[in-house]
Amino acid sequence: MRSIWSGMAHPARIVPLAFLAAVIVGTVLLSLPYATPGPTRPPVLTAAFTTVSAVCVTGLTTVDTATYWSPFGQVVIMGLIQVGGFGIMTLATLLGMLVGGKLRLKSSLIAQAETHTLNIGDVRHVVRRVAITMLAFEAAFAALLTARFRVRYDESWADAVWHGVFHSISAFNNAGFALYSDNLIGFVDDAWIMFPICVAIVAGGIGFPVLFELRRRWRNPREWTVHTRLTVYGTLILLVTGIGAFLALEWANPDTLGGLSPLGKVVGGITGGVVPRTAGFNSIDYGQITPETMAINYVLMFIGGGSGGTAGGIKVTTFFLLAFVIWSEVRGERDTNIAHRMIGAQTLRQALTVVLLALAAIAVGTMTILLVTDYALDVVLFETISAFATVGLSTGITPNLPPAAEITLMVLMFVGRVGTITVASALALKSRHRHYHLPEERPVIG
Q1: Using the 8-state DSSP alphabet, how is residue 9 labeled?
Q2: Which of 127, 125, 109 is CA-nearest to residue 14?
Q3: CA–CA separation, 281 and 57 (whole Å)
Q4: Rounded distance, CA 349 to CA 351, Å?
Q5: Pick from 8, 19, 113: which is nearest to 410 by CA?
Q6: Could you report the per-residue pLDDT of 133-179, keeping only the tens digit for each?
Q7: Calpha distance 14→8 (Å, rounded)
Q8: Alpha carbon distance 352, 345 (integer Å)
Q9: CA angle centred on 274, ends 273 and 280, rounded to 5°
Q10: How many CB atoms lie within 10 A of CB 403?
Q11: b/e code 159-176 from CB counts within 10 Å (16+ = b)
Q12: Predicted TM-score (pTM) of this structure
């Protein structure tokens, strides 16, 4: 019995178990008759799908959040987003903490899996700082959105505050849930709505460790850690690339940005370059985007945001770390060096493992949905990448999927949100050093 409990208490197992517990509680709450306006209970699968999407801060939905769920149900969804986002901002950084050194107490190990600190320190202090940071950002963006909803759209103070708080939490946690039936399409050219949401998305997705380091050393980029450099510069590169590509490819598309004013197109283009990083808000109809834009979104969604943040995907650091590996190999260099630091072989293997497992999960999910539906490969691939990378963007097929496809997306969301954390943590925990080397052999590559 003791050995079983010891195995279950392993941090790499506690992470998915904690999220699974949140999913069970959320499903029960959303299955109550109070969760919908009508007298009947919601179907269990609908409640479970919405819960997984909220806890994993994805944003994919099979029903209209604005009309299907009652105020009670919407409050539950908002609470699940907050719980999931806070857990992600803390749990997702277990690997970085473990690499920093060994911990003596298992309880400290579990607690520090939620802090991304590279030393033992005061766990409660760091967790409290994460909570304060989240609440401060969410309150600031909620105030901006509330003012805009009240002044520009003449909503009552109660509605304006509710919409401001909900969308602020949804944006900072990269969830993509909205309280409007068309998501945010009605605000596509409203900079006072979309820009605060975009900033909240980037701030939440960049990760607490980076936010904390920038607060201390933002004037001295040369003192930044390799993690912060990869995250900040990588995020800037992907944002500029995504925004530029979206504007170029959708500027004249009459079904997306084509009918807007030049300023409206710029606002819509900036949003279109930010939300695939994994926010999931729809400010345009993604069922009408060009094939080229869809291909760009495949890449942006797959990469995602920063480690230790609320964004999903394989993470910016993983992608650019492997880019440096390729660059070093092309140049014939034996070591991979970034910012006058050598990256260890163990870290490189972990990054490669995360990417290959992500590709495998998406491939299996795509094949499964193709087998149970008649949808084309491009839209199914868009859906599965969006689910695994916890983006939440959809071409509109989610509500029409059969139960088998819905369950497949639920598994992808859960694995994409929790699986990469667990795999990275398990790899770090299982690292060992051999005291001997086997004879070397070089198979033919390429």
Answers
A1: T
A2: 109
A3: 12
A4: 5
A5: 19
A6: 899 999 999 999 999 999 999 999 999 999 999 999 999 999 999 99
A7: 7
A8: 11
A9: 110
A10: 11
A11: ebbbbbbbbbbbbbbbbb
A12: 0.88
